């Protein structure tokens, strides 16, 4: 029964994701999951640890934060109207509850564009110290990419996938264990072109680690029947920055950050699709516990 609840909530989460700029009323959302509004409130909170309204508000704010970082041509007024806020002041108040600063300040603090910071004039040297530390950090990431990554711009093929949703950064290994347990008797792991993939539906940069939603996936060569918490999804073919890394498990965050900085520094813009990882080995079987992994960022 719990697996059926998770499947239906997954459908609701996907519906919300693609309709953040539309009116999202409780009755419509409940119908997507075949729940009564009363039961939806209870089950949604139990699975996601948030109420529906809390979740929708957070996702809208995080969506606007992503746009502020990557699409500077869109005005704050446009964003506030597009994502359901009655006024700029209402949007700003809500945004500040999440990030502690206004949308305007957030946009200026874009970590991939620090030219405005460089123009700060300091009377006491404090700002200059912040700037020097910041540039040092950026340069550190650039050097990391040079040492650790082979980067290509590639047309990546379409991938049909079976997945299980994971909310929060802890527990991904157990989620993959469940997926493999399901796939093994179906002989899905015998596919010679098998890909093991993690899709990031949220960004650790703008979402709290315990709320980040990810999909633990394996590729499929043909359609399969799924039920319960196992779902089906597709990564459409498209243009990607692909960074090939050989790294330790504690180096993933730095590698992702470095790749996004490389993207910005080289004039690419992230497309409105989800980044993902493809694992080319089982790091537990490597003598030095090294992951051989491709990080894929969709670009326009």
Automatic annotation (TrEMBL):
<dbReference type="InterPro" id="IPR010499">
    <property type="entry name" value="AraC_E-bd"/>
</dbReference>
<keyword id="KW-0238">DNA-binding</keyword>
<dbReference type="Pfam" id="PF06445">
    <property type="entry name" value="GyrI-like"/>
</dbReference>
<dbReference type="InterPro" id="IPR050908">
    <property type="entry name" value="SmbC-like"/>
</dbReference>
<keyword id="KW-0804">Transcription</keyword>
<feature type="domain" description="HTH araC/xylS-type">
    <location>
        <begin position="10"/>
        <end position="109"/>
    </location>
</feature>
<dbReference type="GO" id="GO:0003700">
    <property type="term" value="F:DNA-binding transcription factor activity"/>
</dbReference>
<dbReference type="InterPro" id="IPR029442">
    <property type="entry name" value="GyrI-like"/>
</dbReference>
<protein>
    <submittedName>
        <fullName>AraC family transcriptional regulator</fullName>
    </submittedName>
</protein>
<dbReference type="InterPro" id="IPR009057">
    <property type="entry name" value="Homeodomain-like_sf"/>
</dbReference>
<dbReference type="Pfam" id="PF12833">
    <property type="entry name" value="HTH_18"/>
</dbReference>
<dbReference type="InterPro" id="IPR011256">
    <property type="entry name" value="Reg_factor_effector_dom_sf"/>
</dbReference>
<dbReference type="InterPro" id="IPR018060">
    <property type="entry name" value="HTH_AraC"/>
</dbReference>
<dbReference type="InterPro" id="IPR018062">
    <property type="entry name" value="HTH_AraC-typ_CS"/>
</dbReference>
<dbReference type="InterPro" id="IPR020449">
    <property type="entry name" value="Tscrpt_reg_AraC-type_HTH"/>
</dbReference>
<keyword id="KW-0805">Transcription regulation</keyword>
<dbReference type="GO" id="GO:0043565">
    <property type="term" value="F:sequence-specific DNA binding"/>
</dbReference>
């Amino acid at each position: 029964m719990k697996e059926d609840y998770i499947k239906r909530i997954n459908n609701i989460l996907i519906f919300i994701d693609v309709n953040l700029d539309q009116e999202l009323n409780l009755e419509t959302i409940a119908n997507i999951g075949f729940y009564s509004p009363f039961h939806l409130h209870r089950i949604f909170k139990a699975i996601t640890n948030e109420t529906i309204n809390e979740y929708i508000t957070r996702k809208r704010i995080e969506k606007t934060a992503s746009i502020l970082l990557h699409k500077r041509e869109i005005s704050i007024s446009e964003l506030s109207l597009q994502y359901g806020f009655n006024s700029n002041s209402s949007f700003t108040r809500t945004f500040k509850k999440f990030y502690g600063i206004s949308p305007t300040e957030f946009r200026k603090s874009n970590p991939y564009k620090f030219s405005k910071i460089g123009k700060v004039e300091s009377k006491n040297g404090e700002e200059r110290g912040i700037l020097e530390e910041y540039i040092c950090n950026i340069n550190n990431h650039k050097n990391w990419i040079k040492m650790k990554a082979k980067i290509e711009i590639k047309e990546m093929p379409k991938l049909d996938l079976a997945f299980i949703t994971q909310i929060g950064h802890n527990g991904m290994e157990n989620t993959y264990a469940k997926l493999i347990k399901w796939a093994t008797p179906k002989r899905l792991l015998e596919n010679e072109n098998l890909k093991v993939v993690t899709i990031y539906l949220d960004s650790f940069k703008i979402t709290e680690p315990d709320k980040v939603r990810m999909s633990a996936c394996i590729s499929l060569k043909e359609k399969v029947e799924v039920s319960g918490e196992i779902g089906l999804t597709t990564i459409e073919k498209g243009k990607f920055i692909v960074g090939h890394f050989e790294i330790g498990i504690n180096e993933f965050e730095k590698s992702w950050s470095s790749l996004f900085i490389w993207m910005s520094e080289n004039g690419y813009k992230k497309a409105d699709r989800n980044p993902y990882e493809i694992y080319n080995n089982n790091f537990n079987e490597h003598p030095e516990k090294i992951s051989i992994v491709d990080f894929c960022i969709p670009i326009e």
